[in-house]
Amino acid sequence: MAFPAKYPELNATEMTDEARQILLRVLKVAFPHPNFPDGPYERMADTIMEEAQNSTWFRVSLTQGLTTLGHLAGGDFRELNDDDATKVLHRIETTEFFGFIRRTTVLNLYDNQDAWDVLGYEGPSFDKGGYVNRGFNDLDWLPEPRVETYDGPEELVEFTDDVPLAGGRAQVAHPHVDVHTSSQPGATSTEAGEVRK
Hints:
Layout: H1 9-13, H2 17-30, H3 38-53, H4 56-73, H5 82-91, H6 96-108, H7 113-119, E1 161-164, E2 170-173
Helix pairs in contact: 2-3, 3-4, 4-6
């Protein structure tokens, strides 16, 4: 694909090691996990670059996006501190470039053993017979649930009123429902003792 001569830096940045390093920085800022090893982020950058190679649109979008980050950063995006880098990403969060990175990362970053080990996820259980006999409730990172007993009335409290109908019959209805002005097409009132079919 030929890029416009007006933007020769697109050719220079496309799928280079520099582009990969900028992409790694984007991933670490957009999906911050201080305890993550580099492996999941590096695999994610490679996955995004492979996906971009399969689509001219995404390849151009990725290349333009990475170039734009440099302009918005006023230099090298990789050299920004986390707060400033986050501000730059907020400026482009609605672009196709960032949407492509976000979608691809959400679906792939956490789908590997390295990430599971850091996050405390034991992995899928179907091949081990499920969680029932493997400590499905052994979470140690959630607070203990509050267990409270009900201290309300012992007997049933009815929330209905008798509503008079034409002909001297009574109907039982919820007090906040006006059965006489129902806007439901074909709605009919139910008389006391009558069962709806």
